[in-house]
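Sequence in, structure out. Go.
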Amino acid sequence: MDVLEIVTAHAGWPEVRPVHADLADPGSVTELVSLFSRATVEGVRKRRVLAGVERFCFFVGYPRSGHTLVGSLLNAHDEIVMAHELDVLRYVGLGLRRNQLFSLLLERDRVFAAVGNRWSGYDYTVPGQYQGDFTRLRVIGDKRAASATNRLAEHPELLGRLGRAVGVPVQIIHVVRNPFDNIATMARRRQADLAYVIERYSRLGSIVEGIRDRVAPEGFLDVRYEAFADRPEQVLAELCRFLGVEPSESYVRDCAAVVTSGTSRSRDGCTWSLEDRRAVENLIARRPVLAGYTFTDEH
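Output:
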């Protein structure tokens, strides 16, 4: 199968969405062929740099859970490139290989830095650190949690294909926040009914648990966003060690400086029926990773 056949067969995959013009996903066959060709050329040109990659990382989980901030701060490390919202599993499904995938991630990182590391009205810049750049590339990855989760639900074989394509250990990060806040934020952003969003959140959670069951414990890390916001230095150090790199004092300090302590109680902006609250309490009870979260948490 040649590149035109590959992209034609997969051009209709979901989750292709318009964003900032420079970050828009390629949708047409022409755009995909151009991307494939560019990735091939850049993969060859950067092969020496890419040869040093030791680990690959991606995120799974839910929209509006804090993945973007966590990914952006990891991306500020001088040995990590954590690209913003590439949707790497889409390109694994298209048949791209290691250096083609890695070159797309580098390009995405460069473009996101060029537009000021801004997304959904937030600025994710870490002054003095390495967003859009690196000194030695040891870890590379992608932050597009909900899309990755949905793709693995529809095409579970992509997890194995990803591992074979990149040829290095694959590490998965799963960020959770209080489900009442996470669901409320999702509902507000989508202008959707709470019951609908609760069902969507529950479905994503079930998919995440299925993914967890398929990987070794050392390849999957849960992060509570509330702990990250309260103790960014400690949690960032744990994340770096999970990825096999060391966090320098200046890196941890500069990243912690852009993290706002505490989290917003988005749940207070919604009207919760007794049925909605019980539905969330039931899904919390079913998932150990959510243990301890309640509607009355201070955060």
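Check: The chain has one domain: 3-290. Confidence is low (pLDDT under 50) at residues 1-19.
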